[in-house]
Amino acid sequence: MIRLLSWAIPLIHGPVTKAFHGSFAWVMGFVAWEPLSIIRKVNTMNILHVSCSPRGQSSESYRLSQKVIGHLLQRDPNAELINRVVGAGGIAHVDENYAISQQSLEDVSQEGSFIQSETLINELESADVLVISTPMHNFTVPSALKVWIDHVARVRRTFNVGAQGKTPMLRDRPVFVAIASGGRFSGERARQPDFLTPYLKAVLNMIGLHDLNFFTVEGTALGPDAIAQARTATDQALHTYFHHHEAQ
Ligand SMILES: Cc1cc2nc3c(=O)[nH]c(=O)nc-3n(C[C@H](O)[C@H](O)[C@H](O)COP(=O)(O)O)c2cc1C
């Protein structure tokens, strides 16, 4: 209907000059379409996928993240997916001015790491759902993920510091963390400490992300049977999670 209207308006205004005719139609077209495009944008779910394995798309954590994203897309086929690949070391460590700013009352530079930080925070802010795929490295997050965190956990931007300690500044949204590890770090058969999940919980909480959902494929170094078993158990857990949330 609105499309018809924006086509019909130039015809109705036959006597007007061609130039005015064109611009009037353009303006009316804009007026008619702009609210629609805003509604479309508001309704589109944005998924930000931060992938952190040095093995890229061949990695187990990436594979698991695709399962998570598959479920999300099944729920909302029009969702937009933004891939932020950090695993191959695409993000530089934070620079000197950024480090000084973190311990100062104001930012001492709006360049270098500050720009990178702003880009990554904007990406995070426009995401309705965050998916992080990551391996366990030496009982915790790989350094590539730590670099991403160092850029998005920024004082005065994503958290504040006051007498009560640190207060988050981001709005909450669902976060899915897809983890792969060579050995097991959870359950009765765990033979190593886990500094990965408690660390991610603490740092994501600090900036305002509390709706955290962890899925793991543990024991990738324990042979094909162990991997197959772990994948099946995790697929089942994912199915149960999404089935349960769809029913709500
Ligand atoms: C530098 C490095 C450190 C690792 N440290 C651990 C570890 O502490 N615990 C563990 O279970 N696996 C460890 N692994 C093995 C990886 O977690 C395992 O290979 C995992 O499946 C990799 O996931 P990806 O395929 O998503 O990269 C380590 C691997 C690397 C490269």
Estimate the strand proportion: 15-25%
Biggest beta sheet attributes = 5 strands, parallel
Question: Which superfamily, in CATH terms, is the homologous superfamily of the largest domain?
Answer: Flavodoxin domain
Query: What is Rg?
Result: 23 Å
Strand order of the largest sheet: 2-1-3-6-7
CATH 2nd-level architecture of the largest domain: 3-Layer(aba) Sandwich
**Secondary-structure element pattern, one letter each:** HHEHEHHEHEEEHEH
How many structurally independent domains?
Answer: 2
Basic shape = globular
Q: What is the fold-level CATH name, i.e. the topology of the largest domain?
A: Rossmann fold
Mean pLDDT comes to 88
Task: Give the distance, in angstroms, between the N- and C-terminal Cα atoms.
Answer: 35 Å
Protein name: FMN dependent NADH:quinone oxidoreductase
Binding site for FMN: 53, 59-61
Pfam families: Flavodoxin_2
Family: Belongs to the azoreductase type 1 family.
Can you walk through the features of this model?
The chain is of the alpha/beta class. The chain has two domains: 2-37, no CATH class; 44-247, Flavodoxin domain (Rossmann fold). The chain contains eight helices and seven strands. The chain has a five-stranded parallel sheet. The two termini are 35 Å apart. Residues 1-33 have low confidence and may be disordered. Flavin mononucleotide binds next to helix 3 and strand 6. Residues 53, 55, 59-61, 135-139, 180-183, 192, 220-221 line the site of flavin mononucleotide (FMN).
